Every structure is written in structure tokens, then in C-alpha cells.
């Protein structure tokens, strides 16, 4: 069975906006496209990415890009209890805590993000890797 990975918004933004880390983010997303991993995001990631895509490309193209992404990336949700756990956690960034605890709740294997603060706050149950680190860890 494929690994389950959570894609932080910055990975999707690098890919969709063709930012500096485009190539490595594309490699991670391609793993999902080709069925080597199962990729997950939350509705809040859709919201964040949708906002920036709309600003960059307009609403119609942003919607098309999101629909294309969602053919290979599954949206998972958070419940009340997980939200409370995230808010009671030691993570300072509320958005990061909500994403991270949602991923843990859904038993995700890897959390992929370029956010160094999140990486420092992670616990061993759910490691946070940059795209480079993830590819090196899993595919050597």
C-alpha cells in the first residue's frame, strides 16, 4: 500500500504558482498522480491555495487548477475533538496545529512542508519533512 502524505499549502503553492521550489514540489505531487503515495489536504488548505490562485490567475482558472489537483489529492476533515487537541497543543501557529493534528487523526505517515517552525514542533508519531527530505527518506 502507498504511503499516506499530508501536503501543506506551501507545497501546493510552490507547484501551482511555479515558485522557486516548483520542481521538487512537482516531484512530490507526481508521486500521488502516479499512485505511489496517497496525498491529503484539509479544506483550509483548499481555501489558502484557492485564495492565492485566484489572485494570480483569476477565479475561473483557480477553480480549474483546484479541481485538477483534487483528482489526485483527497480532502480530509477535522472534528471538534481534534480541533480542541490542536488548540491545546504546544504549537504556536493555530493553522499549523489544526493541519498537523488533523493529519495525525487520519493516521497520515508523513507531513510534507517547507515550514521549519512546524518541523521543530512535530512529534515522532508524525514526522514533518521538507519535500527534499521526504524524497530522500522514502526513495533514497
Question: What would you note in describing this structure?
Answer:
- The protein is globular.
- Helix 1 (9-16) packs across helix 2 (22-33), helix 1 (9-16) runs parallel beside helix 3 and helix 2 (22-33) packs across helix 8 (131-139).
- It has helices at residues 9-16, 22-33, 43-57, 59-69, 80-88, 94-105, 116-121, 131-139, and strands at residues 3-7, 37-41, 73-75, 110-112, 128-129.
- The protein has one domain: 5'-nuclease (Rossmann fold, 3-Layer(aba) Sandwich).
- Strands 3-2-1-4-5 form a 5-stranded parallel β-sheet, with helices on both faces.
- It contains 8 helices and 5 strands; from the N terminus they run βααβααβααβαβα.
- The protein has 140 residues and is α/β, with parallel strands linked by helices.
- Strand 4 (110-112), helix 7 and strand 5 form a beta-alpha-beta unit.
- The chain starts with a strand and ends with a helix.
Amino acid at each position: 500500500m502507498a504511503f499516506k502524505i499530508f501536503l501543506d499549502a506551501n507545497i501546493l503553492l510552490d507547484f501551482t504558482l511555479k515558485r522557486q521550489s516548483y520542481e521538487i514540489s512537482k516531484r512530490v505531487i507526481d508521486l500521488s498522480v502516479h499512485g505511489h503515495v496517497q496525498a491529503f489536504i484539509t479544506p483550509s488548505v483548499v481555501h489558502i491555495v484557492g485564495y492565492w490562485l485566484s489572485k494570480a490567475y483569476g477565479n475561473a482558472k483557480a477553480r480549474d487548477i483546484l479541481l485538477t489537483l483534487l483528482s489526485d489529492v483527497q480532502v480530509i476533515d477535522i472534528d471538534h475533538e481534534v480541533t480542541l487537541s490542536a488548540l491545546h497543543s504546544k504549537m504556536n501557529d493555530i493553522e499549523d496545529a489544526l493541519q498537523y493534528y488533523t493529519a495525525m487523526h487520519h493516521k497520515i505517515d508523513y507531513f510534507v512542508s517547507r515550514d521549519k517552525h512546524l518541523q521543530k514542533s512535530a512529534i515522532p508519531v508524525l514526522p514533518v519533512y521538507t519535500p527534499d527530505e521526504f524524497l530522500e527518506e522514502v526513495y533514497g
